Amino acid sequence: MRIFLTGATGYVGGAVLDALVRAGHDVTALVRDKGKARLVARRGAHPVVGNLAEPESYKSSAEAQDGYVHTALDRSSGRAPGIEMTALEVMVAAAKRPRTAASIPPASRFIIYTSGAWVLGQSPDPADEQALVNPIALTAWRPAHEQFVLAAATEHLRTIVVRPGVVYGGGTGIVADLFKSASNGLVRVVGDGNNHWPLVYDRDLADLYSRLAASPVASGIYHANDEGDERVNDIVEAIKPYVSVRPDVRYVPIDEARSKMGPFAEAMALDLVVRSPRARALGWAPTLHSVAGNAARLLEEWRNANAQEQTA
What we know:
Layout: E1 2-6, H1 11-22, E2 26-31, H2 34-42, E3 46-49, H3 59-62, E4 67-70, H4 80-96, E5 109-114, E6 123-127, H5 142-151, E7 157-164, E8 166-168, H6 174-183, E9 186-190, E10 196-197, E11 199-201, H7 202-214, E12 220-224, E13 230-231, H8 232-239, E14 248-252, H9 254-261, H10 264-269, E15 272-274, H11 277-281, H12 295-311
Parallel strand pairs: 1-2, 1-4, 2-3, 4-5, 5-7, 6-15, 7-12, 8-11, 9-14
Antiparallel strand pairs: 10-13
Helix pairs in contact: 1-7, 4-5
């Protein structure tokens, strides 16, 4: 299939790009500059240089695609929600226009929108895809975008919302930040560390996107997490034996953390247990089920990714 992808050089989008290319799809990737264009071209995509905030820069490239996968988030301008809604409007409009390409298209097109588990808010009891949303301030705008995408569904357009947990693997992300802090000798934990993070390995998450693109019946909301139900303290303790000097741990009260981190502090202290029954019903089975249980492997991944970045 021909798939239009945003965020292809990002953390989630990069993993999704690799999964889609491995599955044999023809991926057109929106990127910001020529340097990033060369990166995605080497990974098997057709780059289009443009800007989410400037629809005219990519609107024509979004035409005649079979599917659309949105993983990008433009945080640099401070206008992320508005820019994202504009991008979603462009993709929905393109997906509903008749195709003019000569190749035989699939029976229906699809749009996959990347939301996040934090729209569920505090939930120490397991929350599946039927749970009501109660977003924290950081993600208060996402439910409206979810509903916009879901409401665009037609007989010939499948619309899908993916809610990943905290993504781990490779050299970036929140768990990678824990690896970096531990290696530097001091880990700061927001709250008491007994809260649960919903987690998902980046390659497992990308596999779910590939399955959703390929399944002609996939539509609606899908949670994506490894269901390991790990506490932050469990993760920190598991990292300690694999760094050169056992790090100190400082527990930062939530009010103090808010003064330094803003609304992100609430996300770090959120106690959230998530289930993904709809994703598993598609045959999705995460290969990793624990950060703590794979701390040595993941720490090595982090070190290798950072070493490659420094030599690039």
